[in-house]
Amino acid sequence: MAADYFNGHQKYELIGGYFSPVSDYYQKEGLAPAHHRVQMCELATETSSTWLMVDSWEALQHSYQRTAVVIDHFDDELNNNMGGLTLPDGSTRKIQIMLLAGGDLIESMGRKDVWASEDLHHILGQFGCMVIERTGSDVWEFLLSHDILYEYKENIHVVKQVIYNDISSTKVRLFVKRKMSIKYLVPDAVMRYIFDNSLYATKLTRKRDYVSFAFD
């Protein structure tokens, strides 16, 4: 959907996208260890996409990295270290980086205990965001009600789902835990990896400085 959005877009042309799995220091119950999540992303993209890639920098960090810091990492790597995009005539152009997010993540931006105002100004003001609407989410209504998001509404691109799809990683993890089929919900290579490594069959409890396993 993100790629389709840019077909024929007057201002932007899509040249690539990155999955950036969070590190093991991100406090969310149910996540598999970072090296497994990086590997699953690589399996999902290596044969199914010509423009999606995986970056493991965030996953390898020894502390939680805010989204603003991760986007700065991509900006530094792509525009400073690699010199931006080289055009056919030999000239270069700065790559415009955007955060790709679901409607639920955008709604979380209204929570001050989750997002710092200065990070929202930095992400939305300097980079921008693409939002994939999810079933039950009214992104435009939320933009109207949130001062910072409304301030940068020109930098927020809302992609409407033509065919509604409410598959989420949370549901996939729950299906595995309940021994339900995930066939056709994830690529076959990822499904095999999950079962070969016995992922998501236990309840994961995450703390700031360690990961402990609590077996059902």
Query: Strand-and-helix sequence, N→C?
Result: HEHEHHEEEHHEHHEHHEE
Topology, number of strands: 9
Q: State Rg.
A: 18 Å
Structural class: alpha/beta
Strand content: 5-15%
Q: What's the story with the biggest beta sheet?
A: 3 strands, parallel
The first-to-last residue Cα distance is 38 Å
Write out the strand line-up for the largest beta sheet, numbering strands in chain order.
5-6-7
* Total of DSSP H or I helical runs spanning 4+ residues: 10
What does this structure look like?
By secondary structure, the protein is of the alpha/beta class. Helix content is 39%, strand content 14%. The strands form 4 sheets. A 3-stranded parallel β-sheet has the order 5-6-7. A two-stranded parallel sheet has the order 1-2. Strands 3-4 form a two-stranded antiparallel sheet. Strand 3 (85-86) and strand 4 form a beta hairpin. The longest helix has 15 residues, at 67-81. The termini are far apart. The model is unreliable at 204-216 (pLDDT under 50).
What is the secondary structure topology, with strand pairs?
Layout: H1 2-6, E1 17-19, H2 34-46, E2 52-54, H3 57-60, H4 67-81, E3 85-86, E4 92-93, E5 99-102, H5 103-108, H6 117-127, E6 129-132, H7 139-145, H8 147-151, E7 156-159, H9 169-177, H10 188-196, E8 203-206, E9 211-214
Parallel strand pairs: 1-2, 5-6, 6-7
Antiparallel strand pairs: 3-4, 8-9
